[in-house]
Amino acid sequence: MADFLGARPLPHTVSVKQRNWLSNISFELVVEKPRDFTFLPGQKVLIEKAEVQREYSLACSPDAKDLHFCIRFLAEGTLSTILAEVQPGAKLKISEAYGFFIYRPGNAIFIATGTGIAPFVAYAQSGIQGFLLLHGVASVEDLYFRQIVEKAAKHYVPCLSDEDPGRVQEAGGIVGRVTEYLAKSLSSGVYDFYLCGNGAMIGEATCLIDRNFPDSRVFTESFFSG
Ligand SMILES: Cc1cc2nc3c(=O)[nH]c(=O)nc-3n(C[C@H](O)[C@H](O)[C@H](O)COP(=O)(O)OP(=O)(O)OC[C@H]3O[C@@H](n4cnc5c(N)ncnc54)[C@H](O)[C@@H]3O)c2cc1C
């Protein structure tokens, strides 16, 4: 994979405009949009800083003035720790947008873990509506971008794996992981599932879908194998 990533050009040098903490483990990075930069909601770019490159999904609509990213801070991580420290005015390199995690009209169910919400924010901000969205996070504080995605969703279900039951109820969520909701609460039917985030969740959810929702389609964007 490193060779493939290394082979992709990063023609744009852009300035950081803002870095906002969304919770104590995730932050939003806002960078200037290069002239004539275009993308489809659900696509990603390579970001490079200090000669380290990683992929990040765009968390904004193609019409947005700037480019937005939603990034998990990993204490042991290489680039995420560097990006967590960048100040407005710092320079980054980015590639053109690419990727195939693109919405196709249908009976859509979006399933995200953590910062895997990013492409669904891009969908919601681009006018895609009426979907069921499950967002799996540890605690209520990690339900960033809730207002944006909930407004566009037919049904939004926070799936909270490490939260006080009272706070889960207040948040209108369920106690447990997105896969538990899939296994126990989703009505039978034929759906288009879009899975984004933790690779282990994607593997488990795909098996459940295969067993319980025959004839459904599955589209995936794995951020890491967990
Ligand atoms: C297609 C694609 C899109 C991506 N989009 C995003 C995005 O929008 N937002 C985002 O935060 N990340 C995203 N990632 C993950 C990102 O590319 C980096 O892997 C991540 O930021 C860690 O990089 P690092 O250099 O800090 O850590 P590294 O030094 O590379 O190592 C960190 C370790 O943590 C693991 N890891 C990576 N991500 C996570 C995570 N979220 N939780 C727990 N462990 C993890 C890695 O597998 C690795 O073992 C995406 C990955 C891919 C493949």
How would you describe this protein?
Helix 3 crosses helix 4 and helix 6 (178-184) packs parallel to helix 7 (199-212). 36% of the residues are buried. By secondary structure, the protein is an alpha/beta fold. The strands form 2 sheets. The chain has a 6-stranded antiparallel beta sheet, covered by helices on one side. A 6-stranded parallel beta sheet has the order 10-9-8-7-11-12. 24% of the residues lie in helices and 33% in strands. It contains 7 helices and 12 strands. The structure holds flavin-adenine dinucleotide. Flavin-adenine dinucleotide binds next to strand 4, strand 5, helix 2 and strand 12.
Under the CATH scheme, which architecture of the largest domain would be assigned? 3-Layer(aba) Sandwich
**Contiguous runs where pLDDT drops below 50 for at least 5 residues:** none
Structural class: alpha/beta
CATH topology of the largest domain: Rossmann fold
The CATH H-level homologous superfamily of the largest domain:
Nucleotide-binding domain of ferredoxin-NADP reductase (FNR) module
The sequence of SSEs as H and E is: HEEEEEHEEHEHEHEHEHE
In what range is the share of β-strand residues? 25-35%
Q: Class of the largest domain in CATH?
A: Alpha Beta
Helix content: 10-25%
Oligomerization? single chain
Number of E-state strands: 12
* Bound chemical compounds: flavin-adenine dinucleotide
The total of helices stands at 7
Evaluate the radius of gyration: 17 Å
Average pLDDT, rounded to a whole number, is 96
How would you characterize the largest beta sheet?
6 strands, antiparallel
Count of domains? 2
End-to-end C-alpha gap: 17 Å
